[in-house]
Queue: 3 jobs
Job 1
Amino acid sequence: MMTDIEIAKGINLKPIGEIADSFGVSRDELELYGKYKAKLPLHLIDEEKVHRAKLILVSAISPTPAGEGKTTISIGLSQGLNRIGKKATVVLREPSLGPVFGIKGGATGGGYSQVLPMEDINLHFTGDFAAIEKAHNLLAAIIANNIQSKKNNIGLDPRTITWKRVMDMNDRSLRNIIVGLGGSSSGIPRESGFDITAASEVMAILCLASGLNDLKERLGNIFIGFTFDKKAIYARDLKANGAMAVLLKDAIKPNLVQTAEGTPAIIHGGPFANIAQGTNSVLATKMGLSYSEYVVTEAGFGFDLGAEKFLDIKCLSSGLSPHAVVLVATIRALKYHGKMPLADLKQPNLEALKAGFVNLEKHIENIKLFNICSVVAINRFVSDTDEEVDFLVDYCKHKGIQVSVADVWAKGGEGAIDLATKVVKTVELCNSRFIPLYDWEWTVEKKIETIAKKIYGAEAVDYTSKAKASLRKVYSLGLDKLPICMAKTQKSLSDNPELLGRPKDFIITVRDIEIAAGAGFIIPITGDIMRMPGLPEFPASESIDIDNDGNIIGLF
């Protein structure tokens, strides 16, 4: 069987100008990054057209460690929509180098449902991640400099500063470090560390900003810490937000590329869904909606993480509203939630498959909580047997669930024609309107409890003493009316990755609460979630190489 990269090399890419033509944007408006990539200026967004187009959200059941192919389905669905005569665009997040060289690999889809050029997108692309990293670390340097300075010192208490540095790589040894060693000329020693760039609040801000002015304001609202006399300090107090915005002047513009079938693809921003909002930028989504009948976008991990945040944070802050949800399910993930060992998932097992249906059921129930119509897309893998696929299809039909088998890896848009047809029919016939899960005006505790009980199925929520202290700080700063961005494992509906299927009678434990005032949300931390992942025992980087002709080998 051909690999994704072998398939990609066999596809004749169109010059980006031709993609712009099909998208409806003048070539003169493009800011070119080589022959096949370009940035789109923000003035191209048309708010009136945004609200006439149809927005389709692709989510998934709780995934296996390798993921269930939301990106592949999203790309295939956009291609399928174009094949049935609908002008469609796919809008996605940018990959992080952490997963690329770690365990999940790249994030450009696969087979004949890829975005291209895949090597560029999976690596440095147009430099957006680097710009976000630099803007974040500039603020860290300004903070350290202010503490050190005798003439330009606002009295920051180093013990209260939580702003770390970031880099776009999995490196567990940098999670907790001491900075400022080396004597009095090298700064004030204090505890700090590194987060991965995708977990940076600057990334979240970029993806929620409505434009440059909003970007600067949000950057200025980043909470830094307190002075020795307990005054709250924000990035604007250090006069940092203007310079940070300058570093992001190009990164804020969405990137235009193409799918394997020449469908326009906009790729922009890349926050993780287990520690941030897990969706591409508001500006990228609106750019797609300005030039398409249908925009297909995805939210990271399962519906309990990325999709809930997409709906309760991104949609409410931007005025967007999805017209349908496509829920990706795979035979292997359902068997995994039926307690089948990870190493055996390629083996047929109807009993394990049936036992895993409870996870699918819960995610379908969760979609209904938001009053949105849905279609289940079965992402077919080579190892799936006809008997297993038919068993899942029959189950969905018996439950009254719209379902389609999508073979997009092998067939591209052709493998998504049935799915595309059912999505269009669902949009045309469904009259329900999106309803958020909670009101931002509620208390922080009520918002957290609503997500934990209704979305996760928890019995109750418990707070550690550290979380209670952080909660008091949220209220004292007047930030209690912000939405909730839960940090939770993607492997389970609970905060325990070992509880598969549909856990019951469990308690969600909030061990801390972080403040992202610039992004406009607060982050309850549950379980063992960390903002700087580590590499696996056998990282994907071991299989990645380049030959003497410059051809990349082994990149997903």
Job 2
Amino acid sequence: MMLEAIYHRPKQNWSYAYDRSTLHLRIRTKKADMNAVQAIVGDKYAWDNTKQTVPMRIFATDALFDYWEVAVEPPFRRLRYAFQLEKGTKKLWLTESGFVNELPEDCLSFYDYPFINPIDVFQPPAWVKEAVFYQIFPERFANGDPSLDPENVEPWGGKPTPKNFFGGDLQGVIDHLDYLAELGVNAIYFTPVFEATTNHKYDTEDYLKIDPHFGTNELMKQLVDICRKRGIRVLLDAVFNHAGATFPPFLDAKEKGADSKYAGWFHVREWPLRVEDGIPTYDTFAFEPIMPKLNTEHPEVKEYLLKVARYWVEEIGIDGWRLDVANEVDHHFWREFRKTVKDVNPDAYILGEIWHDSMMWLEGDQFDAVMNYPFTNAVLDYAAYGKLDGRSFANAIGTQLANYPQQATEVAFNLLDSHDTPRLLTICGGEERRMKLAALFQMTYPGTPCIYYGDEIGMAGAGDPDCRQCMVWDEEQQNGDLLKFYQTLIALRKQHASLRSMDITFLHAEEKDAAVVYERRSGDNADVFIIAMNAGTRPRNLVIPAANGEWQDAFGGPGATTTVKGKQLSIALGSLGFAVYKYVG
């Protein structure tokens, strides 16, 4: 046994309440090092009458470790526990005091989960698990009301620059809700819609007002109401890390200096506010002078921003917030933000923009989820760039599954591109087949998938600003085959619980092999899929162990054929091919 590799901690993603009656216990061991791991559990005040030994299962694995898990329902919402580790004939026990060769008769040295207090249970909104998001950059989606156009508006479909405008607005979104419904999405994430000077609106001037080029607050409410009747949720972008250069408190501080009543609203290193050698004398987003960082510790700043957070949920009826540059705002503010929003609507979705490990924000007191860029990177490195073989890809996914509590993974925001990155088709080098592989995995993986507007019709684009082109509405210029692919895939995900479940098992993932095969099951095993993908350019013939019975071709790609013999599934995959099979008994 490699004891150095074994890890457990009685908190965070290692020991947590999944719901009001269930605890999840996890432990890490060296990969392929243990034959079995069991948990010894019981109530600390009734140990002799409640103790039991329960087997654990490997729920995820990566390049170095196996991750074991078990769900336990403590009889009195308290739990003392230890772990029994087995390798061959050798047994060892792990308690909070360390490794022991014999299990103590009492539980005094065991790990302790003191009590499942309902208020502490992290419960993200259930609807998010069923959602398929569609990200809209409002200025570039559709121009529904030309009377709102900026004076310098350019013809729709022109080349985007950092500063030009094309007249997209909220009415344009309302006009195309039928399109979104036909696509199958049931949630929209809007990049900022509040009054600002730029086309992206991340330099907020008035947080309580829809930008006049987009419409009005009343129109926003109308959009939300129409979406609700269609079963579509609406998420807005909260830019609370920083404001804009035309934000009235910033203008006052710029004019009056340290004497401004708003001086404390910002992080100022030196007065007066200015830029020297490209570096502002005040903290900003990056070094962008028009985006001064807000001091979210200041009582008046907190009061203002929490008023904003409450207003759009309570008065306009939005279903949640996406939080821009969330990792640069203090944790105390986010805790108050969560309480403010959840007091108005406990079902609101709070999503943080964080590009790295986010455990400290996902303990139930701040965010429900984060934008899952580690997932993005793993999928793109496999399907788009070809940097990962099957084994490395499966390992990267295993790490993701182990990193967070289950309820956080269930609502993780799984994106493949956005307004901050090149478009998916461009990332894939223009190869539609690679794009389909990435989207297939995204739509059949635990969490909440998000499509960046226009990807589904084959829009391409390099990094900002090219990724922010105008939506193509001329059907003759759309990729109809790709659109049908997305419609079919979204429908398949919505129809089958197994494709949204947490149960994912890699059946084939080998070194120097670009093919992977994985199984998806529903909780009651009534719904089972096997999905095969080949991110390589040479055909692959695979034989996969499978349940004896009939497997139905649910969704096939180019060059994929399957035969079933006994308890084996023989799959032939062409170059960059895929196949989806459903077990029908």
Job 3
Amino acid sequence: MLGRVLYIQQAQGEYWRSLSDSLHQKFIELDAERGTIYSEDGQMLSTSIPFFDIYMDFGAEGLRDKGGKRFKENIDSFSLVLANFFEDKSAKEYKKELQLAYNEKDRYYNLKKGLTFDQYKSFREFPLVRQGRNKSGVIVEVKTKRLNPFGMLARRTIGLARENAQNVGLERTYDSLLKGTTGKRLVRFVGGSAYVPVDGYEIDPENGKDIMTTLDINMQDIANNALMKMMVQSEAEYGTCIVMETATGKIKAIANLGRGKNGNYDEALNYALRTTEPGSTIKLATLMAVLDEGSSKVNDLVEVGSAGQQYVGVRMVTDAERSPRPVMTVRECFAHSSNVAMGKLAYKAFAQEPDKFKSYLHKFHLDKMTGLGLVGEEPPVLPKLKRNREGLHAMITASFGYALEVSPLHTAMLYNAVANGGKMVQPYLVNSIKSNGVTVEEFEPTVLEEAIAKPATIKAARQAMESVVTEGTAKGVFADCPFPVAGKTGTAHVAAGDIKYDDGVYQASFAGYFPADKPEYTIVVLIRTHPHAAMHYGGQLAAPVFKEVATKLFAMYVKQKRTNAISLVVDSTAHMYAGYKKDIQEVLQTIGVKNNDGSASATWAKLTTVNNQVLVRANTVAKKVIPDVQGMNVKDAVYLLENMDVKVSVSGRGKVVMQSLAAGTPIRRNERITLLLN
């Protein structure tokens, strides 16, 4: 028996081991390269970066033939190069570990994981490795990491492709298109979960398709910065800002900021899709409903009293602020946001048929989801409006923004329809889907309603919204605005979850469009305050954000359309540059370009153009956090990062268009960053 055991182990060992291998083979899936999500102007919003895991098969025939001559001749140089390149072990340590794995015939030795493309290119030229897989035993597995190059900007809308977690945003909605078709590979397991590929048995995966969105990264940056400024100033709980192109319904920007436990703000949830009691912004729907019904005209007088509250129908109604006069026109009541007036108008029009008010809300598409296409959008909630005391109570309450729930996106769609002359278009986020650069599907604007109200009603509603800005609740905010604005403020007490109406939490909002005479963009801003916040009115919190966003969009995208000036030829000054400030100033001075320098004493700067004027801005570089190197050339980016003890890998040529670590990320020990050039 002992003799037989020795014979099986020594003489027949290889045969039986190979037979064992054949019994432990199976096909595994090969993930396709995930598609990229782009902004409307072609900038990458979410993309996959390849990383390489390196293993070694020390049982490879080419590595062990002739008594392991090839391995013995290369192990010293191979160990030395590994030590010098990775700087994590000495050459002696590498040699000892490799020799041990070779002696044990390790079929799947883990050499290195997570190499960048540049590191992998260098690795392929190492001694032993450059002799090819069959002779070196090197096994390479390619994996990808999903990155959002612009960090926080629209991150919740774009979404994340995550392992062991549910995707969100566009990444989830278009997951089946983005992920492509998986391939297959035959592998042989060599111990535990370790395996080696079997050559010649592989089906290539089909790469995912690319998504071309309607988002504009500059508008997103503007919306995010304006919202962030107000959120920090007011210490608000969360906020959202939506920018929609009036004529088409394209969503150009969605900023969502929520406050974390550490007090910092991040894009954690898509608040633009969450339904809440809207407050006074819903008064636009009430106004159009009563005007279209014909029960009231925009210049009819309404008695609101001087006490700030009145009994209307079946309930007491209170105004947030006392009206300037006890009797005002319908237009003035809307401008000064009188709850009493809106309740009276709705009661006069629909007391006999409360359901009729609900039919107008249906016509305005406030009882169904918007159809934006993002998973996670919440459906609106409308009250039961029957002809009884409860139904009348709910109808009056809904007329000034309570007892019903809609999302900020619903509000944007409604106000955009008024800006569009009554034509309601469906908001959308995707322009087209492409495969290898070829368009396979294209999306056009979708008209939901050719006219949501009579032309006279739309005209009166627009005049009423302009009155809000010129004489009503937003007068002080837009007094110095260089273009006409139309909109409506909203301030609502919040009752949701554990929060009660008397807990002092408010929802401040402003919805509107600009320029009021020829609308280009519709904007909705919503901010939820912390309990008992000093600033909680829509005119205090939301309207200033609207104004900042609108003013910058007007300067960058609208003003030139409204003038008869000769169009300028686009040249290199329209592109963004960044780098060492003295170098930028020297170049500008040498070529005679006038500029506005707002960078003060900064060392690093960014060069941009606003309304064809060159602007030099400071590029703040803080200690121990990753700086923003986008727009820099390689010299400046590498110099800046390496002086912060960050190891840099570079792919491509030109200026930096993407960095694997977002600006503001804390720098850890042995930190590495990959820069993608254009």
